Amino acid sequence: IRRHFSNTSVLNNVIENVTVIGGGLMGSGIAQVSAQSGHNVLLVDVSPEILKNSESAIAKSVARVAKKLHKDDENAANKLKEETLSRIKYVTDPLKSVESSDLVVEAIIENLELKQKLFKSLDEAAPKKTIFASNTSSLSIAEIASTSNRKDRFGGLHFFSPVPVMRLLEVVRIPETTEETFQSMMAWGKAIGKTCIACKDTPGFVVNRLLVPYVSEAVRMLERGDASAEDIDTAMKLGAGLPMGPLELADFTGLDIGVFVLEGWHKKYPDNPLFKPVELQKRMVKEGKLGRKSGEGFYKYTTK
Ligand code: 3HC
């Protein structure tokens, strides 16, 4: 009987309907992995044009995943593709999109006021049970949650790029997050195929708190002329077994993102030398060298 009750209570929190707000790279990836694992997904952005891009990015990525998972079975690959794509609906009204949502994952631009405004309006539109989460990589979850009346059902769900490939999900708790909310987020993370780790609401959580200072030091190393970009990257790939070197990674995630994160943390924690902005990186961003997406960063790219 005890088992029956505990199962019932777990089942009450099962997440089936997911709303993803923001159709960029991260939001599209989050929508994709949710749909791939059987969830109904509403992907929200401001315009049908942006959503068209999200849709084609998702279709391309699902095709890669399906090909990999079902190498010798074309029918199974097609089934995975079709079923995944059919579970995602593309919508432009955020308030309507949360009406029957169990979980909202926000992946809009990294702007605190915009996120606060969004969650305040969603709070009024969503049912009581809906869990709210932000995919922010550098802002404080508590500050984002501060405008809503559901801090007990609020947390961080931080994904890594490319979302369909990277296996980690950071699940972030604020002091008000209930154990039930936390467990629901962990269970959902597992259901979408990720390995979850629990994080406190500290700058950069675990991965970016370590990765951002490391990448910054690699840029400073280049700035000092200690080694060439190629040699720094080769060193970390062959000497530390990483899939990409730090400068390749900076190009991959976007130099503007790196600068934005460091400047935000530096402003908040001016005494921490790890968060000191890097001149070379700032200069490159001013020159429009944002990395892969602009065609040039530490390296030049012919395809984005
Ligand atoms: N969708 C689906 N599958 C994809 C994909 C995508 N968008 N991108 C790559 N893949 C698959 C490929 O199909 C390929 O599958 P296969 O093994 O069957 O051939 C596999 O992933 C490897 O891809 P590639 O052969 O194209 O290239 P690589 O072997 O160089 O891998 C990479 C590319 C997965 C990006 C790898 O270089 C890597 O892991 N890099 C590190 C990425 C990283 O550190 N990300 C974290 C960034 S920090 C972050 O996201 C935090 C945020 O807050 C900013």
TrEMBL record:
Pfam families: 3HCDH, 3HCDH_N. Residues 204-301 form the 3-hydroxyacyl-CoA dehydrogenase C-terminal domain. The record marks 158 as: Important for catalytic activity. Belongs to the 3-hydroxyacyl-CoA dehydrogenase family. Its main location: mitochondrion. The lineage of its organism: Eukaryota, Metazoa, Ecdysozoa, Arthropoda, Hexapoda. One of its GO terms (biological process) is fatty acid beta-oxidation. Residues 17-202 form the 3-hydroxyacyl-CoA dehydrogenase NAD binding domain. It comes from Phaedon cochleariae. Gene3D superfamilies: N-(1-d-carboxylethyl)-l-norvaline Dehydrogenase, domain 2, NAD(P)-binding Rossmann-like Domain. One of its GO terms (molecular function) is (3S)-3-hydroxyacyl-CoA dehydrogenase (NAD+) activity. CoA binds at residues 61, 68, 137. GO terms for cellular component: mitochondrial matrix. PANTHER family: HYDROXYACYL-COENZYME A DEHYDROGENASE, MITOCHONDRIAL, PTHR43561. It is an enzyme of class 1 (oxidoreductase). This is 3-hydroxyacyl-CoA dehydrogenase. Pathway: Lipid metabolism; fatty acid beta-oxidation. SUPFAM superfamilies: 6-phosphogluconate dehydrogenase C-terminal domain-like, NAD(P)-binding Rossmann-fold domains.
